[in-house]
Design a protein that fits this description.
Length: about 350
């Protein structure tokens, strides 16, 4: 209860003083008329809001009885080594995003840094490695063995890149991360931290939908890594979620990333270089900006609701998502897009 009040109070303070914070650190996203079409510069401190409150949550959890066990329980970490490693990596990923928002890191340098820190996280803590692939429709699991480290690094790196590429218009990342934390909360996983992040996302949405604050790379990297951590640890320890459910809540950003990588590579372009062929660009060209949230509710929130509140086969939900996504892409094919 007290922790919730602290988060509410700090969130209210953020709502009133986000402009002052943005000006003091001079962190804004500037319109360029090519990929960024907002009329004015927009604050990119969304990630600072989430990171700061997350640290406050951890500090409060420790101060309850000055025992790290509360933190271990909160984010399913087993020992001090795991906690230190997690905080070290998530902080540096947040700082990489912060630096990129302010000074624009080269895509190659950013890729190398992300892989290095993800490797440190996975290699030095076995509990952070995906050891097997489980399906709700097959009796046997696929054991990854020595391939587990490489597979885990690829999964986390791909998720960070996919979520970063997907963060292109107001509300996209909000719906994306909201769906994930609702899924975790509904499953009874990390209920305390999931409920707090759902509230924080709603506060962020108040500013984001009014074009006042963007999540920024700092927020995307922080939230993406936190989500990766929570899902992997639950997947390894509790085994209450399966691969199909994970695919459903992560599919659309990953699908968009795969499409962009394939098409850019086919055209002889750097797959990491930005352009205006993302899913939100296609929807904007055909259906206009104001309709974007409805499409992402349809692509992300609706499949989640079907998953949580019906007995529909998970593969049918995945097929539905792929079908709708493919239709949106193909229907915009005839529209001229700047690349």
């Amino acid at each position: 209860m007290i922790l919730s009040l602290i988060v509410i109070l700090l969130s209210i303070i953020f709502l009133f003083f986000f402009k002052n914070i943005s000006v003091s650190i001079n962190l804004f996203d500037l319109p360029d008329g090519v990929r960024k079409f907002q009329k004015d510069k927009v604050s990119c401190i969304g990630g600072i809001y989430f990171y700061f409150l997350f640290i406050v949550i951890l500090i409060y959890s420790y101060c309850i009885d000055f025992n790290l066990a509360k933190i271990y329980e909160l984010i399913l970490i087993q020992n001090f080594k795991g906690l230190f490693l997690f905080l070290f990596v998530i902080t540096f990923l947040f700082l990489i995003g912060l630096y990129d928002d302010k000074y624009e890191l080269k895509s190659t340098n950013k890729t190398i840094l992300l892989i290095i820190f993800i490797f440190i996280y996975v290699f030095h803590e076995e509990s952070y490695q995906i050891k097997e692939l489980r399906s709700s429709y097959f009796d046997q699991s696929l054991l990854l063995g020595n391939f587990s480290i490489f597979f885990t690094i690829i999964c986390i790196f791909s998720l960070l890149v996919a979520f970063n590429m997907f963060d292109g218009s107001n509300g996209q990342s909000f719906f994306n991360f909201l769906a994930i934390f609702i899924f975790l909360f509904h499953k009874g996983l990390f209920a305390n931290i999931s409920s707090l992040f759902i509230f924080m996302l709603l506060i962020f949405a108040l500013l984001n939908f009014r074009n006042k604050v963007f999540l920024g790379d700092n927020g995307v990297y922080f939230l993406s890594f936190l989500v990766s951590h929570l899902i992997i640890l639950n997947y390894n320890n509790d085994k209450s979620i399966n691969a199909e459910e994970i695919v459903i809540i992560l599919l659309i950003p990953v699908l968009d990333m795969i499409r962009l990588f394939v098409t850019r590579t086919y055209r002889g372009k750097n797959p990491f270089m930005p352009d205006t062929t993302h899913i939100h660009h296609l929807i904007q060209k055909k259906y206009k900006q104001l309709k974007l949230p409805y499409f992402f509710i349809f692509l992300i929130i609706l499949p989640l609701s079907i998953l949580l509140f019906t007995n529909v086969n998970s593969y049918l939900i995945i097929f539905f998502q792929i079908f709708v996504y493919s239709y949106l892409v193909l229907s915009a094919k005839k529209i001229k897009i700047n690349e």
